[in-house]
């Protein structure tokens, strides 16, 4: 049995990691809430963003935290263009086609990354990755603490955008009733593209926060999206507060499972939670019934 200090440290590190999981899940839940589809390209786009952070740091010497606003803008533009000029036209208004198109984008991106970077695993070579903050008997990873704070700030900003701005109100209107929104003059295709762009921007921020403590290879995004999908289901599909709460909870579950069951079995707890939520509360913690 582990001491109380070790258990508390595991819980704290789980919360810090869970905030970044929530950030990855935000893009997934936002796209689902408006477009009502699961974006199969989510993992590949996250991997692309992580490689962009690695390239910028390794070859250009740009710090991953300095890169956040620039990469967020670039990936917003990428997401907007993908939805407006590829996914939208190719799907012909059929949700089933959207799933196939995003799956195709995922395959293209993964194979492009494999062709460029091969299958090697890469990480940022920085002493900062190993720095810790001592709080009494607890040791807290500084990169994860920064990731936690940044994830909370981004979540709050996204909530404010959706709640207080005209664009946010238009996004919520399209999510509720796209035909009614179009009848009052809202450009639904534009809002779809804006939503997809915001989802990609959150991935870019998450990539900048992940890279100091995680590695990247062309297929790593799939593992993060499996966790993010569990977060979305737990918090409630389309719910931003749910994504944050679900991410924090899943981070703690993963950390404690890794502590008591071993690192290789750390994700067992996550998938048990996923099954239990589907069985007993399929709408999630904050989800509304259809």
Automatic annotation (TrEMBL):
One GO cellular-component annotation of the UniProt record comes to: plasma membrane
Superkingdom of this entry's organism?
Bacteria
Q: Where in the cell is it found?
A: Cell membrane
* Topology term for the membrane: Multi-pass membrane protein
Ribosomal protein: is it a keyword of this entry? no
Name of the protein in question:
Amino acid/amide ABC transporter membrane protein 1, HAAT family (TC 3.A.1.4.-)
Q: Membrane-crossing residues?
A: 12-34, 40-60, 67-86, 98-117, 145-162, 191-211, 223-253, 259-280
- Tell me if Transport is a UniProt keyword of this record: yes
What GO molecular functions are on record for this protein? transmembrane transporter activity
Q: Which GO terms describe its biological process?
A: amino acid transport
Major localisation:
membrane
What InterPro entries does the record tag this protein with?
ABC_transp_permease, BCAA_transport_permease
Q: Record's family?
A: Belongs to the binding-protein-dependent transport system permease family. LivHM subfamily.
Per UniProt, the keywords (alphabetical) are:
Amino-acid transport, Cell membrane, Membrane, Transmembrane, Transmembrane helix, Transport
């Amino acid at each position: 049995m582990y001491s109380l200090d070790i258990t508390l440290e595991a819980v704290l590190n789980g919360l810090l990691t869970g905030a970044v999981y929530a950030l990855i899940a935000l893009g997934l839940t936002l796209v689902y809430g408006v477009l009502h589809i699961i974006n199969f390209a989510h993992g590949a786009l996250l991997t692309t963003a992580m490689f962009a952070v690695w390239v910028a740091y390794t070859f250009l010497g740009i710090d991953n935290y300095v890169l956040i606003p620039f990469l967020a803008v670039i990936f917003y533009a990428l997401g907007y263009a993908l939805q407006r000029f590829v996914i939208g036209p190719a799907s012909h208004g059929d949700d089933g086609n959207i799933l196939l198109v995003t799956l195709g984008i995922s395959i293209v991106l993964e194979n492009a990354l494999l062709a460029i970077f091969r299958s090697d695993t890469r990480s940022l070579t920085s002493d900062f990755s190993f720095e810790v903050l001592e709080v009494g008997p607890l040791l807290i990873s500084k990169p994860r603490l920064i990731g936690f704070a940044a994830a909370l700030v981004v979540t709050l900003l996204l909530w404010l955008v959706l709640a207080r701005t005209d664009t946010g109100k238009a996004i919520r209107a399209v999510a509720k009733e796209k035909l009614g929104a179009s009848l009052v003059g809202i450009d639904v295709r534009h809002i779809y593209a804006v939503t997809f762009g915001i989802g990609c921007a959150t991935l870019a921020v998450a990539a900048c926060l992940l890279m100091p403590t995680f590695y990247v290879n062309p297929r790593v995004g799939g593992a993060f999206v499996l966790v993010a999908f569990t977060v979305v289901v737990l918090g409630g599909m389309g719910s931003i507060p749910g994504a944050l709460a679900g991410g924090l909870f899943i981070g703690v579950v993963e950390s404690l499972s890794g502590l008591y069951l071993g690192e290789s079995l750390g994700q067992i707890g996550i998938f048990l939670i996923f099954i239990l939520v589907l069985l007993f509360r399929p709408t999630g913690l904050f989800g509304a019934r259809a």
